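Exercise 3.2. Students should predict the tertiary structure of the chain below and write it as structure tokens, then compare their answer with the key that follows.

Predict this chain's 3D structure.
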Amino acid sequence: MAPGIVVRLFANPWPESVPTERLTQILETVARHRAEDLEERAASGEYAHAMISIAILDPTAPLTRPTDEALLAVIEIGEGAANATPNALGKACAHRDHGVDFGTLLMAQRHRIADGEFRRGLSSDVNGTITGASGLTGIQDQFQAGVAAAELNYGVGAARIEWEETNSFRWSTSDGQPSERYRALAHRDALVTVEL
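Answer key:
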């Protein structure tokens, strides 16, 4: 990993199909690509500096799981990025909690932002992967967060396709059977059962 880049993985919702080592490699690739892009844009004068923190929420987490338990990873790039992490988390968490991107909350629904919550910037949702970023301007943060989410989605998707090709199961479990959740639901007592 290049100096000035920190990747922190908090959970792996795909431990069988995307082992933690592979998921870490995917996140490292995402971080390196974002760092390279930041450096180029800062060198050209487009960005004020090459520093950002990106918070990525777990796209598999159902809405019944508290947002504070749905953190997948944080990527910090550049000096001072750790100081921007709470802001990135604030945007991503508010997005998930309220079901709309942070820009909508900020511009059209300020009444939904409680005292003590972050109140600047934009968030991103790429096919269910919610991200928040902080360190640049709002639109630059949103762009970097969105690209990071898209690259993560691609990396995880590609890894899962590889796994599926060697494990031709109908269900994403090691034994190819439905999870206990669906087995229990299938055998749940019905209010009424009619056999014709």
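Discussion points: Residues 5-186 form a domain with the Beta-Lactamase fold (CATH 3.30.450.150). The chain has a mean pLDDT of 89.
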